[in-house]
Specification:
By secondary structure, the protein is an alpha+beta fold. It has helices at 22-37, 45-51, 60-75, 85-90, 103-109, 137-154, 251-264, 266-274, and strands at 2-5, 8-14, 56-57, 118-121, 124-127, 160-164, 167-171, 180-185, 197-203, 206-212, 217-220, 223-226, 241-248, 280-285, 294-295, 303-305.
């Protein structure tokens, strides 16, 4: 089963005899997720919040994502921060773009960055500054995966794979009665849809998300400008990581941590991963030296390299 959502595509594989109406239900659910979290829909919950100077009542999907995002924000010491929206726009990766960006512009926008300035109370979201805007794009696809997975389980489907734009959740076994085999993309600068894969991950009853700066980028004055923005500095990051792959029970959590680790770099990411038993992590090092990549011990037996 395939379709389009969130500016990308989804693919779902599952084992069931009852197919009638499932695709329509799945598309309807994804539409509800989009109407909650998409900044490209003017009437969505997140767009209404971004345009409002007052608190607004939010829907249950928004509330779930907000709570999960706030926890990852805390655990990553602010590296995952949905209030980067003004910076995302300024650097040309959002729904709006500034024609000119310099240090003065970035300094002024930093006044509106900080997820600790946004609060959820009794089903309403409050902003300390009316100009603060949220961007849940680094967690929304993972959440969409979780929503569809929960729907499939509610229908008694015990074996499935759900993928939206590269974020994946699996349960049970694949059609060959073995663990699901999930390919991890090779992090090579490439803006086309042609994909090259480096690793295969054997997975069951878990989710995975990969983040990197090898697809969404542009060049300015000879410098590569990538889409991952450091919320503490205000600038696109360039560090020792090529990509970060995270495994967690919930796909939205894996999605958020993968983005945070790209901001933090290898050393700080390893420190967080080794203190959290719920995370399995594979970090691909930019130096690409022998054994320079980091892999959680639990993950090592589940990874194999693709050989040509």
């Amino acid at each position: 089963m395939e379709g389009a959502t969130m500016g990308t595509f989804y693919q779902i594989k599952f084992e069931t005899e009852a197919m009638d109406g499932l695709k329509n239900s799945i598309d309807s659910l994804l539409l509800v997720v989009n109407n909650s979290l998409s900044t490209y829909i003017p009437e969505s919950t997140i767009s209404r919040l971004n345009q409002s100077s007052q608190s607004i009542e939010v829907d249950p999907f928004f509330e779930q994502v907000f709570i999960a995002a706030k926890e990852v924000f805390r655990q990553t010491h602010g590296a995952f921060d949905p209030t980067v929206m003004p910076l995302v726009n300024a650097w040309g990766f959002g729904f709006d773009t500034l024609s000119y960006v310099d240090s003065a512009v970035i300094d002024s926008l930093m006044n509106f960055v900080g997820f600790d300035k946004v609060h959820l109370r009794d089903g309403k979201v409050f902003k300390d500054n009316p100009y603060i805007m949220l961007d849940f794009s680094a967690i929304a696809k993972g959440f969409g995966v979780d929503v569809i997975a929960a729907f499939l389980e509610s229908k008694g489907i015990a074996n499935y794979m759900v993928e939206i734009g590269g974020e994946v959740r699996v349960k049970g076994k694949n059609p060959k009665k073995s663990d699901w085999q999930i390919a991890i993309e090779k992090p090579v600068d490439n803006k086309s849809w042609i994909q090259d894969y480096e690793l295969v991950l054997s997975l069951s009853d878990n989710s995975t998300a990969t983040s990197g700066n090898y697809r969404n980028f542009y060049f300015r004055n000879g410098n590569k400008i990538a889409h991952t923005i450091d919320p503490k500095a205000g600038y696109p990051i360039f560090n020792d990581l090529l990509s970060a792959t995270v495994i967690h029970k919930k796909c939205m959590v894996a999605d958020a941590y993968a983005t945070a680790f790209m901001v933090l770099g290898k050393e700080k990411s390893v420190d967080i991963a080794e203190k959290n038993d719920e995370l399995w992590v594979y970090l691909m090092d930019r130096e690409q030296e022998i054994n320079s990549d980091y892999c959680s011990e639990e993950l090592k037996p589940r990874l194999r390299k693709i050989t040509n």
